[in-house]
Amino acid sequence: MGEQKQMKLAAYLIGTGMHVASWRHHSAQPNASIDVTYYQRLAQLAEKGRFDLAFIADSLAINHDSHPNILNRFDPLILITAMAGATSHIGLGATASTSYSEPYQLARQVASVDMISKGRIGWNVVTTGDATGETGQNFSRDVHFTHSERYQRAEEFIDVVQGLWDSWEDDAFTYDKEKGLFYDPEKVHKLHYQGDFFKVKGPLNIARSKQGQPVIIQAGSSEDGQRLAARTAEVVFAHKDNLQKAKEFYKELKDQLPAFGRKQDDLQILHAIAPIIGDTEEEAIAKHQELQDLVPTDVGLRFLSGYMGNIDFQAYSYDTPASEIDFPKVNGIQSQFDEMKKIIDTEGLTVGELYARLTNSARIDEFVGTAQQVADAMERWLEEEAADGFMLQVPLLPSGLEDFVEKVVPILQKKGLVRTEYNGTTLRDHLGLVKPENRFTRVLK
Amino acid sequence: MGEQKQMKLAAYLIGTGMHVASWRHHSAQPNASIDVTYYQRLAQLAEKGRFDLAFIADSLAINHDSHPNILNRFDPLILITAMAGATSHIGLGATASTSYSEPYQLARQVASVDMISKGRIGWNVVTTGDATGETGQNFSRDVHFTHSERYQRAEEFIDVVQGLWDSWEDDAFTYDKEKGLFYDPEKVHKLHYQGDFFKVKGPLNIARSKQGQPVIIQAGSSEDGQRLAARTAEVVFAHKDNLQKAKEFYKELKDQLPAFGRKQDDLQILHAIAPIIGDTEEEAIAKHQELQDLVPTDVGLRFLSGYMGNIDFQAYSYDTPASEIDFPKVNGIQSQFDEMKKIIDTEGLTVGELYARLTNSARIDEFVGTAQQVADAMERWLEEEAADGFMLQVPLLPSGLEDFVEKVVPILQKKGLVRTEYNGTTLRDHLGLVKPENRFTRVLK
Q1: Which of A13, A365, B388, B402 suits A23 as a labelling partner, its CA being 20 to 30 A distant?
Q2: Within a domain: residue A114?
């Protein structure tokens, strides 16, 4: 077997937690999403648990049906800058869109935080999913980009950003006061990028950080998304319903790496889980039920209407058997409907149960239980090659993360699956990713 | 006379200082421009001096002739976020361009730092001057915007940003756990902005900070720039050669306020000065000469070539009388040429002296001298209505700012011209600007 493989851990931080009703919990601080010290404490907690990174998601539009924790929140890059100042080792990942940003600007901001944090930053590349259907309208566009446009643009965008990040060779700045030479002009490089979407000359006005380049994170699971990930991503967040599906996705994605000249360990797959820890399994399940019971009915019905496109669920009650509803065929999200119909038919769900199922952020039962049960499940997923690690979408913060760090992490550390001390200082160090050589230095060899 | 008027103070922070050769000084830390703790210490120093704000400039392209301190530096918004974490009272101003940003994105990032800093942020609105002639090419444009396009776009941009900043009324978030009401839907507002450059729906996904809205800063002195400032700016940085010109500019700009329904104190004019403090006047002058002597000749000649457009100064030496050079007429920067020719003819400068004059960041002699002399000059400018305060473009950092805070500020405090303690906590508090009412709340009254 050789050296035991350790699991990667990421903490998805979002106000009072991933659960839509978490803010109503008696322990929740409802203004958490705009409290910077709250986020700093969570990052410190994850650092105490020796996590690889803390992670901030994003969206570029909100409406009445948005998750309460995203209605009023910080820009992710600004937030992780503040979190960097309160931590020393943990990596920090921020989401930023390739559809609504300029690559020069984004390259620069991400590089700036990477420099400030001494090489602890990851950029979560999103093409923006447009849950509200209104994102384009916040950016002077009548409509959002098509799926394929988004991914073509994203591919160019990443090429530009990574190219700009190599503008300065690591020893470009000579600072020779005597001779008056601030830098060596041979060691700064223009990019001269020309693509279908972008033309960017360069050079960027900031040098590389300690880790060379920020880490590229992605979550796309569509065909386009997987292709982009196989080509460029170093961390992928996966979302599957169960171990079997996770294993299939893991293999499918890793199998695409060689075509891009990449090795298995060049891309780490972190599976999303929503752990809830109890002293007993029953207590853990009860904790989850407590959150489900806090969801206001109208929120649930509106969520279903939004999720299902053109069905008005507000005409039904939670008790209506979902099988009584006539689901029309709708273009574009047919796979969503098909999956849902299958669940409804197989399990005979009511509307309320359907909602609970769809919003159940702890939908993988293995990760709701005692600390030992959850640690064992995580070990199993790692061993079975369903994941290289986990992104924790904790339903209720901060208590759910405290439980995990205090109760599950020590078990995982005893198993040798989680580090007891950080061995390095950069996010690449933590993830076992090599510092990328500067492309221009390479060329000159 | 009534209550004595106090002066506003801003510290322009830029690596080793404004002087192009400051990095070569024996006391300079040449990598200062990418050292976040260095900037944090400078902000703390300015806070100790009870400054209103610390300020970060910007550019979106670099070339061989760029000031060494801007070749490798942080994005201003990222940097002030890190500075906010190391200070508690001082305001923080960051430059961001209306020509190469999206208003939704910028509104959000500035609002995020404003929230994090508890209301201490100012946005320096620039349309981007394009010193390198290559800025557009970093943003997929063949050419930069024209001057008039830039200002039309800027006007719309500011309207959108300020409109988005009012998306949420101050009491919109009810956090009623019992009833399950996170916010009051009547108190969130879409902007529905439709202009020639932007269409932005809103709402923004972040609420107003303690100071209501970030402060709008500008520096434009062209006709378009002044008009935009008179309409929207709350702080203006002025750059004039002497007291008389400063007084004229001050009056000219303030006189334009009533047309926009604004009062004299709604816009504070801070004049740029480059103080150098010595124990004697001779010592201060010698300090400045020491920096001038550190400028490499080729840097000076290249600077002149760049500044003068199409004259190759590298064909001349520093000793050549500038009057021997044939200055062609060039479109666009004719006023620059005319001013320069006048100086050359009147004062009989050599090429070297011409360069020293143009780059002399301490070009107003009154602000080079003993602490008492500089304090007296500042008092005079305030009394004569040449400025409401000063932006300190210190030639050599950190020592020049230390001198000012330790030696000049106490004199100004004794004169009653600078506060001894902060009275408020927000940038608006410091500047005496009222917290703007939310436009949507106003409408409903």
Answers
A1: A365
A2: yes
**Burial (CB count within 10 angstroms: exposed 0-12, middle 13-18, buried 19+), residue B209:** buried
Nearest residue in A to B196, CA atom: A140
Split into its structural domains, chain A has a count of 2
Quote ipTM for the complex.
Answer: 0.94
* Domain containing residue A398: CATH number: 3.20.20.30
Residue B1 located in a structural domain: no
Residues of B in contact with A28 (CB under 8 A): 177
Give the residue numbers spanning the domain of B36: 8-275+362-444
Say whether both B320 and B388 belong to one domain: no
Chain B residues touching A207 at Cβ < 8 A: 34, 72
Q: Give me the mean pLDDT over the A326-342 stretch.
A: 64
Report the range of poorest mean pLDDT among A249-253, A295-299, B81-85, B286-290: A295-299
A168 DSSP 8-state letter: B
Is B16 in contact with B28 (CB distance < 8 Å)? yes
Contact A202, A165 (CB under 8 A): no
Q: Which of residues 140-199 of A touch B (CB under 8 A)?
A: 140-142, 168, 173, 175, 177, 180, 182-183, 185, 197-199
Q: Determine, yes or no, domain membership for A3.
A: no
Helix orientation angle between A147-165 and A223-232, rounded to the nearest 10 degrees:
10
What percent of chain B is predicted at pLDDT more than 70? 94
| pLDDT at position A286 over 90 | yes
Q: Kindly state whether residue B3 falls inside one of the protein's structural domains.
A: no
Q: Is B439 found in the same domain as B324?
A: no
Extended beta strands in B274-415, E state:
276-277, 368-369, 389-392
B246-260 core/surface letters (b: 16 or more CB in 10 A; e: else) = bbebbeebbebbeee
Co-location of B408 and B335 in the same domain: no
Same domain membership, residue A355 and residue A312: yes
Whether B88 and B145 map to the same domain: the answer is yes
- From residue B282, alpha-carbon distances to A18, A181, B288 in Å are 66, 30, 10
Do both A253 and A370 map to the same domain?
Answer: yes
Helical (H) or strand (E) element with A161: helix A147-165
Beta strands in A98-230 (DSSP E): 121-126, 173-176, 181-183, 193-194, 199-200, 215-218
Q: Which helix (H) or strand (E) holds B12?
A: strand B8-12
- List chain A residues with CB under 8 Å of B191: none
Best CA proximity match to B11, nearest among B75, B55, B63: B55
Continuous segment of H or E residues that includes residue A156: helix A147-165
Q: Where are the beta strands (DSSP E) in B29-170?
A: 53-56, 91-97, 121-126
Q: Do B112 and A78 touch (CB under 8 A)?
A: yes
Long-range contacts of A322-326 (CB under 8 A, 24+ apart): A322/A349, A322/A350, A322/A351, A322/A353, A322/A354, A323/A348, A325/A351
Give Cβ neighbours of residue A213 (< 8 Å, ≥ 6 apart).
Answer: A114, A162, A165, A166, A436
A264 shares a domain with A310: no
Subunit contact A71:B31, Cβ cutoff 8 A = no
How does pLDDT run across A301-331, given as a tens digit for each residue? Answer: 877 776 666 677 878 888 888 888 877 655 4
Domain boundary pick from A331, A359, A387: A359
Start-to-end CA distance of chain A, whole Å, equals: 38
Please tell me the number of Cα atoms within 13 Å of B286 on its side-chain side: 7
Q: Whole-angstrom Cα distance, residue A220 to residue A380?
A: 24
Amino acid at B65: D
Answer yes or no: is pLDDT of A443 > 70: no
B310 and B168 assigned to the same domain: no
User: How would residue B4 be classed by pLDDT, with cut points 50, 70 and 90?
Assistant: confident
Nearest neighbour of B201 by CB, restricted to A24, A71, A134 = A134
Domain end among B359, B375, B391: B359
Q: Are strands A181-183 and A276-277 parallel, antiparallel or unpaired?
A: unpaired
Inform me whether the pLDDT recorded for A153 exceeds 70. yes
